[in-house]
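so i finally got all the pieces together for this one. its three components total, 411 residues if u count the protein bits. some of the lines might not be protein, just check the labels. i wanna see the whole assembly predicted at once instead of chain by chain like last time, that was a mess tbh
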Amino acid sequence: MHTEFHLLTNGPGLYQFTDQVMDWTQAQGGSGLLTLFVRHTSCSLLIQENADPQVRFDLKAYFDRLVPRSDRPEMSYLRHVAEGPDDMPAHIKAAMMPVTLSIPVVDGRPVLGTWQGLYLFEHRDAPHQRKVAAHLA
Amino acid sequence: MHTEFHLLTNGPGLYQFTDQVMDWTQAQGGSGLLTLFVRHTSCSLLIQENADPQVRFDLKAYFDRLVPRSDRPEMSYLRHVAEGPDDMPAHIKAAMMPVTLSIPVVDGRPVLGTWQGLYLFEHRDAPHQRKVAAHLA
Amino acid sequence: MHTEFHLLTNGPGLYQFTDQVMDWTQAQGGSGLLTLFVRHTSCSLLIQENADPQVRFDLKAYFDRLVPRSDRPEMSYLRHVAEGPDDMPAHIKAAMMPVTLSIPVVDGRPVLGTWQGLYLFEHRDAPHQRKVAAHLA
């Protein structure tokens, strides 16, 4: 079973899409393995805490410090800068955080832990429509 | 085929569970794909060198420096601090290292390289029971 | 369906192998899930931009700064140094970037986005033959 989720982003940060995924796996029913794959090189797929929104704030704040924008003096060694100061840092973050997730499914439900939510982590400034391919078997 | 491994941790560090996984895949037999998925947001799943224990020491030492505890002055921008100074760094490490691993299986054995072992990387101070869901098909 | 790709590397950097993978999945045909798994602990598997080669230059430059060689003063706390100053940093990078990738396949083609290529990211100085196990089902 294949589908594709389309997620609209409006600047850097974590966008939850647990419900869309749950709705789809429950409509298929049965048990197996769910795989998600993001078809871009400047955003990531994360499983993170879905309780305190400050966790998402802190994740963004940490990675922004770890991978500064390419117009910052300490990043002057970067060469791929023509697409804006947020572009190469987005590729670096996309290398460091997952682009694919595989989650066992039992009776139509991914076996996420109590505090786990599914997020797209957008690394670019401009609004984007992000495509996440899904496979269930 | 589904199962769940329960691993007891007693502070930060790498805990090997290659043998438990091997025993299970060999009991199932056959060839296919093994997927492991950790049902928590403050620990990771790593495949790492199983020869020199100093590799595990160094991995912990490096990531502790890369993601300092939230009571350190340089981390004063973090907001999610109510659950202790080890909590938000644990979420950050869990974003940066895998929560799911997929390994082909041939004749009941995951095709791990000679030096590869399976580890749970615990990022929290307190003892935990960690649940790793497994799927084989 | 199982196979193994053998990739020759000649020093640190990103080596593209999208075409080998595409040729194999197209020869198998059909739809399903492709999983790649690298059988080593000192290199990574990345999906990254395949357009501007400077992206690969910058990725290498960034991670070399984030994880300095073990003969650098700031890394003097590392213990696993007997296999050369590039060895423990290679293990750290292999913890931080993927060792396994799962990509849905439709009609014999992995659903890579327009700008996505498959790369082995070599972290060691010496030439290596790297083995990437592949599973398609």
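The beta strands of chain A are 2-9, 13-16, 32-38, 43-49, 100-106, 109-110, 116-122, 128-136.
The interface with chain B takes residues 31-33, 46-49, 52, 54-55, 57-59, 61-63, 65-66, 96-98, 101-104, 106, 111-113, 115-116, 121, 137 of chain A (CB under 8 Å).
anyway lmk what u think
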